[in-house]
């Protein structure tokens, strides 16, 4: 398990969340998007700890009421007990009344939610005053033909405005060396870092997997120092699926 690294992207996400909390009511919405493996889930977990946020993770087919129950449960876990029983309406009312004001709610995998659920979350933000950050694939870039959904989408877009962070792959060899390689392998040459960046494309998930493979290879073969040959061989192992 890799400890969370406070990357430049993480700093941006934190700043965006702080802007969401400080924004006027009816515009306390933000969004984190990015390709698979760029660190959305990791950053939302870190933000939750750093900012004392309330985080839930949606799943495919999640129903509105289940989402509200998860939210009430997460509030309780964060030290704000909210009764999970009752209808969806009662739960929304409870969440709005029992102090969501000023709190930050983060929903990971929000792209799994249906529009009525997203609308309900928006009301908790609008009326209750909570900051709401949705993470996942870019909901706001979607095209909808249904007129009602287009209105919902526009309301969401306007509230998010510029409070958006797109998680990018790690861009350069120096960064990948500092973020992924140095914590495991100590200092590495520019050449090794460049080879590592090239093989992973700066994608966090691939980088962690390749670093694991390099470690295994080094341990199997008694190699002490990471070099390009280790990176190339470990990458070839992975490509071969062994
Ligand atoms: N800042 C970071 N510090 C340390 N490890 C990280 C960081 N960001 C990502 N990782 C590692 O990369 C892996 C993939 O990241 P994560 O699951 O957060 O990506 P994701 O964008 O949520 O992907 P998906 O779209 O598939 O859900 C994590 O399991 C974690 O090990
Ligand atoms: Mg994720």
Automatic annotation (TrEMBL):
Q: InterPro entries annotated for this entry?
A: AAA_22, ExeA_AAA_ATPase_DNA-bind, P-loop_NTPase
- Residue ranges of the ORC1/DEAH AAA+ ATPase domain? 28-142
Task: List the Pfam families hit by this protein, alphabetically.
Answer: AAA_22
Gene Ontology molecular function: ATP hydrolysis activity
**UniProt superkingdom:** Bacteria
SUPFAM superfamilies noted in UniProt: P-loop containing nucleoside triphosphate hydrolases (SSF52540)
Q: What is this protein called?
A: ORC1/DEAH AAA+ ATPase domain-containing protein
Q: Which organism is it from?
A: Candidatus Rhodobacter oscarellae
